[in-house]
Model the fold of this input.
Amino acid sequence: MDIVNKLKKELLKQAFTEEQKQTERLNECKHIASIYAQTENAIAVLSDMKANISYIYYGGVAEKLGLAERNTAKTIQSIWEEEIFSRIHPDDLQEKHLQELRFFHFLKSVPEKKRPDYYLIHNMRMRDHSGRYVHILHRMFYIASHSNGSVWLSLCLYNFSMDTSLSCTILNSADGQTLELEKQNCNDLLSDREKEILQLINKGKMSKDIAQTLSISINTVNRHRQNILEKLQVNNSIEACRIAKELHLL
Done:
């Protein structure tokens, strides 16, 4: 799934610096994740974007789903918890990654100190131990950033959902404000010229036609096309237009 590659690249390509008390802060966040798992019976996943490592803590939800025994934990060498992802309904998994990409870019516009106030919440379907899909509430927090603005630690929580009508929403836990994620876009992913070219591609225009329309060379058009594919992490123009529409770039 191309959106997966895009999200992973956005998270892992960030520039990280050596920070004072980094180990202390990591241990604090690991403790927070373990407490969530114990008190809410949640599956809590703390992901370290700098080290590309995840710390997973299992509560009663994990036992019910057949993933692990409650009050256990493990560490994996990836920010991608494939064992959990493999249980999520394919349609919901694609939506999850897309919304997380939107959320990541939304937080880039938020002052570092206020980022932990915001979290993403939405419903999804996951298979239990019998293969039956059950409703799960997923919450995602970016709970620590580096001084240069790079997002460092994320916390994902999985609980059984009591209200399946909840739509994908950003909540500010400090003031109760809610934001509709569909209205948050990723405009900074592409330059204005790249969006202009992609709009013409979406209309079926070839590079030669685009060059004439914009009064630029074909080489320039092709360079922009290649940049678009790389930024959206897709293999062709059809996929680029599809992902761009999902991200409200078209």
The beta strands are 43-48, 53-58, 72-76, 118-127, 133-145, 151-160, 169-172, 178-180. The radius of gyration is 20 Å. The chain is about 40% helix and 25% strand.
